[in-house]
Amino acid sequence: MEPKLEKKYGFFTAVAMVIGIVVGSGVFFKAEKILTATGGNLKQGIIAWLIGGIIMISCAYTFAVMATKYQYVNGLVDYAEATVGKKYAYYIGWFMSIIYYPAITSVLAWASARYTCVLLGFPIAGGECMTISCLYLVASFAINALSPILAGKFQVSTTIIKLIPLFLMAIVGTAIGIHSGMTKYNFTHYVSQSSSNGLFTAVVAASFAYEGWIIATSINAELKNAKKNLPLALITGTFIIMTVYILYYIGIAGTVENKVMMANGETGAKLAFQTVFSDLGGTLLFVFVVISCLGTLNGLMMGCTRGIYSIAARGQGPSPKILSHIDSTTNMPVNSAIMGVLLCAVWLFYFYGANLTDTWFGFFSFDSSELPIVTVYALYIPIFIMFMKKEKELNFFNRIIMPCISLASCVFMVIAACFAHGTAVIAFLIVFAVVMAAGAFIYHKPAKVKDPAAS
Fold first, then answer.
1. Where does the UniProt annotation place the signal sequence (predicted)?
2. Which residue range forms the structural domain that includes residue 407?
3. What is the CATH number of the domain that holds 350?
4. Is the overall model pTM greater than 0.85, yes or no?
5. Residue 12: CA count within 13 A, CB half-sphere
């Protein structure tokens, strides 16, 4: 008999996965971009964090309601199938597997490597950084493919570790900044005038820092009492994330001037920790920052290794019998995992050529850390619309009010991305169209490889 995914994760692992995937490099990696986009205007930056948080929480709530009704192999794909239909679910799964998961995971591997280079004193734009990026990808793949239970425990432990520097900076940085006057100075002095699209650019950047919570639904079939635990994990996790981000952002404003953070990026974050906690203490806490990045990478890889499996288990996509195979020893879709890490390598190569060099890809250079995320929000729209249309037994708040807020949030994200990225959006849409056309070419009516509901 073909092995099936077992119920091996509990509520705290799910919460840790939501927080662990989202909280990590993004809050450090994009803080400098948000400051730059707003011209060092901390108030506008906080508004961007709030808007991004509200978008995340509203969408998470709507999906949490769906999680009480639909429970199969892969949360988002299931929701698309239950609301819009099997073909749309296939295209969602195809996009997530070929573009979203590997593109975001590869960026996180690079960001983790960048912070490692800052810690070790290596150049952050050289071959050392890319080598470490590749090593992190392989290591993250190995722990998820060979020992998924260990990967889950690693997720819980890194989540606890990564909250330490954030909370300490939020509390101590704010206290010191209020006492020294640095917080007031940074709130009242702007470095430059923000562009007309500054807020849009800041919100799209914040979307990267907030993204990842939806990937927690990929362990739906492996979560104990998923219909209860997954909604609780989504809501609990997203509220904690928004609160921590805003408090950290305020805390770091009490350490160094905004222009220093804007000019130094990752090095500026290390300087902020050393300013508050001394050279030794700041370096130790920066080690925690690196660990937090690796925890985020691990969480993303948990979704990435199951990406192709989510459509193969429905008898769709390339070689569904092979890619839906569950290893009897590790209880992991090992062939899907291998496919996932290979796609990560492809997207890491693209990210390097498009964003870290003199544009190897010319017109087709775009930010693969942000545009795939905005695309997911666009793909949510039909799901929310059909959910409101079909689920008539739900109360008015859950069926109409929250899905409408989620819809408005998604539309806002699409508009913001167009303002923030300009013609790069066209380049991305061309790549997106080619990938989806390839998916359409191999699409076929699903054969019964296995019944997802039985998983």
1. none
2. 11-444
3. 1.20.1740.10
4. no
5. 7
